[in-house]
Specification:
Elements lengths: L1 H73 L9 E3 L6 E5 L1 H6 L8 E5 L10 H11 L7 E7 L2 E7 L34
Antiparallel strand pairs: 1-2, 2-3, 4-5
Length: 195
């Protein structure tokens, strides 16, 4: 009988231990389920917020593109819209101030002004590169070049031509060879371009 009682006591203790372990396991499972549910809710909130931020960023980018493309015609500025050329990249626009009047014959050739312009939308500011370009332009560190392209051994090469002369008597340039004063030294190999 003592053995039977010992077996019953051990069985009861094992059942209680198993119930306690099962209860602890159920509590851990409930806690893990609760944490998982919170993580999923937080993930959904984060995705929704990321989607909103992405939509705001896309909208801002879209508005910026619209502002850039509409700028020549919609913005209040002093330039003729046909004088504004969208180039994109570091600087948005190249403005040939007075070119429309030169084409119409109502302005002299030497009255043309070249302007670099960048359009910013909303709270956007100039990048370091844009600031450097505009500063160089405003400080006179600029130069005009005219490049002559030619085929040399089946490769296209460019010869820079500086000091481009203005056409005489307001006549348009016929595209002929540049004058001797307009020629610049050839490439580093000493090859003289054919004209």
């Amino acid at each position: 009988m003592v053995i039977f009682m010992a077996v019953v006591v051990v069985a009861v203790l094992l059942v209680r231990s198993a119930r306690a372990d099962a209860k602890a396991a159920q509590q851990r499972a409930d806690q893990a389920h609760h944490e998982l549910r919170n993580a999923l809710e937080n993930h959904d909130k984060a995705l929704a917020e990321r989607g909103k931020a992405s939509a705001r960023s896309a909208r801002s980018t879209f508005d910026g593109h619209v502002a850039e493309n509409a700028f020549p015609y919609a913005a209040k500025h002093i330039y003729h819209p046909k004088d504004i050329v969208h180039v994109g990249g570091i600087i948005d626009f190249l403005v040939f101030d007075g070119l429309f009047e030169i084409r119409q014959g109502t302005r002299a050739l030497d009255e043309l002004t070249v302007v670099l312009a960048d359009v910013k939308y909303g709270s956007s500011t100039l990048s370091r590169e844009q600031h450097a370009v505009l500063t160089a332009m405003n400080n006179g560190r600029t130069r005009g070049e005219h490049w002559k392209a030619r085929a040399d051994n089946a490769q296209l090469t460019y010869q820079p031509r500086r000091q481009m002369p203005l056409p005489r008597d307001g006549a348009p340039s016929a595209g002929g060879p540049p004058s001797a004063a307009a020629r610049v030294a050839g490439p580093a190999d000493g090859h003289t371009p054919k004209t």
